[in-house]
Amino acid sequence: YKLQILTLVAHIYQGVCYLVDNKLLEGTPHAVAEFLYKEEGLNKTAIGDFLGEREEKHLQILKAFVELHEFSDLNLVQALRQFLWSFRLPGEAQKIDRMMEAFATRYCECNADVFQSTDTCYILSFAIIMLNTSLHNPNVKDKTTQERFISMNRGINNGEDLPNELLTKLYDSIKSEPFKIPEDDGNDLTHTFFNPDREGWLLKLGGRVKTWKRRWFILTDNCLYYFEFTTDKEPRGIIPLENLCVKEIACPRKPYCLELYNPNSKGQKIKACKTDTDGRVVEGKHQSYMISASTAEERDDWIESIR
């Protein structure tokens, strides 16, 4: 359900706020960081943008996120490979700066004897990322040589040089294997909606003044998602079907209706959520859902699929 809620929003921040407000996720930096680190299917570009924000709570979550990584006995390139696979680096320089600073602090905590200061680790980490771009971006014609890489990093260890052997090893590692950058196409939440159990246009009764609205419904993973348009990436609402029943029902104004209801909690709201007009995620207010199909056959097919 946590992952499904995040399909509603373009920004992870709104989804995390909803999860915390509704007691679905602890609001501590560690709990939020662990969710972002371990939950499969989250958009890694969105994670990177979220972690790079400068507000204090984001900085605390970033610190907790980095501390979930174990860098002991890894060389700097190995540690960077692990770190840069857990999210996608944002494009904004200030965000990258904050994230690499947090990385350098954590790396030096795990490997206290490698560098004289975290600044050394921070500078060299940036140099390695730039080296990766230089060696593997086809648009860069002037490739950085090993000699130039060593020369560029002279004196960065509190005025002293790092061992040539260390820099050569890091250079060779990047030259032989570029960083693997997370790709979000097909690996993020939109993947949820591929190959659904059923999809189609239905009418849903809702709103403060009860009206029927046409919505595109997708049934997948025991959950109903509804969209305003078929091209929308984020749904307008989510109805988890756990503990719910479905039945044919006669509606006074619409034919071919079905009802979603919880047989064990009469009078209580169904656990569901939607986005309101300004994009915030809010809890659903339905005690049951009334949905109308265009034909009796279509209604029966939906009922069978939901069951």
Secondary structure layout:
Layout lengths: L1 H4 L6 H10 L7 H10 L5 H8 L4 H12 L8 H10 L7 H18 L7 H19 L9 H7 L11 H13 L21 E9 L4 E10 L2 E5 L9 E4 L4 E5 L7 E5 L11 E3 L5 E3 L4 E5 L3 H11 L1
Antiparallel strand pairs: 1-2, 1-9, 2-3, 3-4, 4-7, 5-6, 6-9, 7-8
Describe the structure.
With 307 residues, the protein is an alpha+beta fold. It folds into two domains: 2-176, Arf Nucleotide-binding Site Opener, domain 2 (Orthogonal Bundle), CATH 1.10.1000.11; 195-306, Pleckstrin-homology domain (PH domain)/Phosphotyrosine-binding domain (PTB) (PH-domain like, Roll), CATH 2.30.29.30. The chain is 40% helix and 16% strand. The protein has helices spanning 2-5, 12-21, 29-38, 44-51, 56-67, 76-85, 93-110, 118-136, 146-152, 164-176, 296-306; strands spanning 198-206, 211-220, 223-227, 237-240, 245-249, 257-261, 273-275, 281-283, 288-292. Strands 5-6-9-1-2-3-4-7-8 form a nine-stranded antiparallel beta sheet. α5 (56-67) crosses α7. It is elongated, with a radius of gyration of 25 Å. Mean pLDDT is 85; it is low at 185-191. GO terms for molecular function: guanyl-nucleotide exchange factor activity.
Please indicate the percent range of residues in DSSP E strands (runs of 2 or more).
Answer: 15-25%
> Low-confidence segments, ≥5 residues, pLDDT <50?
185-191
**Biggest β-sheet, characterized?**
9 strands, antiparallel
Structural class: alpha+beta
Distance between the termini: 19 Å
CATH class of the largest domain: Mainly Alpha
CATH fold naming of the largest domain: Arf Nucleotide-binding Site Opener, domain 2
Q: What radius of gyration results from the CA coordinates?
A: 25 Å
| Helix-residue proportion | 25-40%
Q: Under the CATH scheme, which architecture of the largest domain would be assigned?
A: Orthogonal Bundle
Write down the overall geometry.
elongated
Order of strands, main sheet, comes to 5-6-9-1-2-3-4-7-8
Total of DSSP H or I helical runs spanning 4+ residues: 11
* Quantity of strands, as a count: 9
